[in-house]
Design goal:
The structure is a homodimer of 385-residue chains.
Chain A: E1 8-13, E2 25-30, E3 36-41, H1 49-58, E4 65-72, H2 80-95, E5 102-109, H3 116-129, H4 135-141, E6 150-156, E7 159-166, E8 179-184, H5 190-203, E9 208-209, E10 219-224, H6 234-254, E11 262-270, H7 273-284, H8 287-294, H9 300-307, E12 323-326, E13 329-333, E14 336-337, E15 351-357, E16 363-370, H10 374-379
Parallel strand pairs in A: 4-5, 8-10, 9-16, 11-15
Antiparallel strand pairs in A: 1-2, 2-4, 3-10, 6-7, 7-8, 11-16, 12-13, 12-15, 13-14
């Protein structure tokens, strides 16, 4: 919850962007004394106007407020930048700050025209609703097809970290977008904040992979108020941020629409973490593998053949050294079948644990993903026209 | 048809590897006078035993016969190399040649034990059935879940080229494997054959992408008998091989199981062909895009966002220059919506034509793919245990 640390107010209200009439606009305000901020953004070359705006806002390591809307992603929209600017300016006006201190995030359909009016009017309502217990409302207002809000908290040595996020992947009708705001009352500088956020995102959000599709809007922000008066050790603080990110990432995978299984793809005994991660990603992005898990089929051939697409220079291993364990059952050893497929049970738990041992070192990496199901196809086809 | 050129005999028989009792073993013999051969193989690091064997056989540019089985891929099988060797040795014995002149190809399930007996006995039957009109039977015997055999022919200036293939992708219950044998009675040397086959495969088979999954068994062979006595121009010959490969590639996409649309992803106005191809592949591998086409949804946002994942160093373009045409309707121009989505008709034709104009040059590339459907999920999950 983003109002868990001291120094933050938030709200979530209905601005009228969603046909459903559900909450669609969230406002988060950092009341200080610090206004330190950090950001991590999509690396897609096609980015939404709010991403262009907010990257610029955070470039000086400062931000006073963030306004987030669901219902429209404001990407590939004619005049979309003016809408983003108007929204930021309205926030600045009601909070008596300047627009260049206001981040903007949007999620929803792509390429559908968005007018500034409901956003500007919504900002006034949201400002009036701001409260130091408004974190839950904000978390609800950024949901698209998420079935539940996603929040996390962390506390250590007198300071707190809170977070909210909306889901990654499988989100009809537009792109799969991840938005996340993390707040803290720790006393940190912008550099520490950016390092903690970047390293945490890399180990958490960048290791969940629902469908290999990168959004145009993905944004993760960290705001520090310093209101606790506590200056944490940089590494301890980064660990705290990582815990909050990991918690939110797991909630996203657990709420990915259309999925019937969460899958942890663990690649172990690798020569390097980079190599282990490349192999884990290749497996997590294999449609054949993801369909097999949906069918509760311990089809390990699809696991090793996906691994085999990773260049040897990235992840050295010998095919004859490979072992595959599915939910702890060794179905493949020394690269060949062990005859134990029938012992694998994937039906009694939503979580499926895949371990691929490369036999070439001591490093490892895990990627979380989901199975590929009928409902995924439905979410992303039948309901979109 | 592989017996369309002079100098070839073929057969297709039932060896008993398939529970259905359908034909599952094909034999192709080059009666010369030449025994020139070329081969292109999967680049997956996990390869089937027959791939290891046949890569070695073709390394000297010569091959006298090829035996192909469906029903078992012979990959990750203990003792699988001995089975491949025994099969090749039996072919050598009945044809009075040596085993190192015999190629072996397998397709079917992965990791299921394969014994040599049915293959060895099957080779005897296949040898007795060899005929100069046996191409159709051979094409049928290599089918797995293909619904129809895939054959192509080409003739020019007194020489002929013939080909057969089995499908790519979406093939339950094992991996998606492509096998292809091309025959010619042209007089060519091994180097010309290899160049023609490699360049043709690169422009055809390597530009169809059903699900981004690379098989452990993919094999494309070219056998030249020289029986026409005609020595073609190397470029003309390569063009002929490419036409045969293109014809077979289109048949594969048209028969990909579970698909309801064939999709031609054309990336045009690119700075380089390599860049155009990278962008086309990124789009063709986007599950979100493929689901949208299944839903007959002209969701061009998913097309440009997939394009945006390709590094600028590979394919330079400005987001504001992009145009997207779906079945000829410009749904996006200058990077924004044109308001013409409703004009797009994807329901009256199985083929959907996507054109993404990068606005950065004159090069182009096309990748053929399919939509992502319920039936794809079914083929690759429910029927596999």
């Amino acid at each position: 919850m983003i109002t868990y640390p001291k120094g933050f107010r938030a709200s979530g209200i209905t601005a009228g962007l969603k046909e459903s009439g559900k909450a669609d606009l969230a406002l988060v305000v950092n009341d200080g004394p610090l206004d330190v901020a950090a950001g991590v953004f999509t690396t897609n070359r096609i980015v939404a106007w709010p991403v262009v705006w907010t990257r610029d806002v955070v470039s000086d390591g400062k931000m006073r407020a963030v306004v987030l809307n669901s219902g429209n992603a404001n990407v590939a929209t004619p005049g979309g930048m003016a809408v983003t600017e108007a929204t930021a300016e309205q926030v600045a006006k009601v909070l008596s700050i300047v627009a260049s201190e206001v981040g903007v995030c949007s999620t929803g359909v792509i390429g559908t025209k968005l007018s500034a009016e409901p956003l500007v009017a919504g900002v006034d309502v949201a400002a009036g609703a701001l409260s130091t217990s408004g974190g839950h409302d904000a978390a609800r207002a950024i949901m698209t097809t998420d079935t539940r809000p996603k929040e996390a908290t962390f506390e250590a040595g007198g300071y707190r970290i809170g977070g909210m996020a909306k889901g990654a992947g499988m989100i009809a009708p537009g792109m799969a977008t991840m938005l996340c705001v993390i707040t803290t009352d720790a006393v940190i500088d912008a550099e520490t904040a950016q390092e903690a956020l970047a390293s945490s995102s890399d180990k958490t959000f960048n290791r969940i992979d629902v469908d290999g599709c990168m959004s145009t809007n993905d944004t993760v922000l960290l705001l520090a108020s310093g209101a606790s008066g506590v200056t944490p050790d940089a590494q301890d603080f980064a660990d705290g941020v990582r815990r909050v990110c990991q918690d939110l990432a797991r909630q996203m995978i657990g709420d990915a629409e259309g999925a019937s299984h969460d899958i942890a793809v663990r690649v172990t005994n690798a020569a390097s973490e980079v190599g282990a991660l490349a192999v884990a990603r290749a497996i997590a992005q294999s449609n054949l593998f993801k369909c097999a898990i949906f069918g509760n089929d311990p089809n390990w051939g699809r696991i090793i053949s996906a691994a085999g697409t990773v260049p040897e220079s990235v992840a050295p291993f010998e095919p004859a050294d490979l072992a595959v364990l599915i939910n702890g059952i060794a179905v493949c050893e020394n690269g060949v079948d062990t005859g134990r497929r029938d012992e694998v049970d994937m039906q009694s738990d939503r979580l499926v644990d895949i371990e691929l041992r490369l036999g070439s070192g001591t490093e490892s990496a895990t990627v979380l993903t989901n199975d590929l199901t009928y409902d995924y196809v439905t979410e992303n086809s039948a309901y979109t026209t």
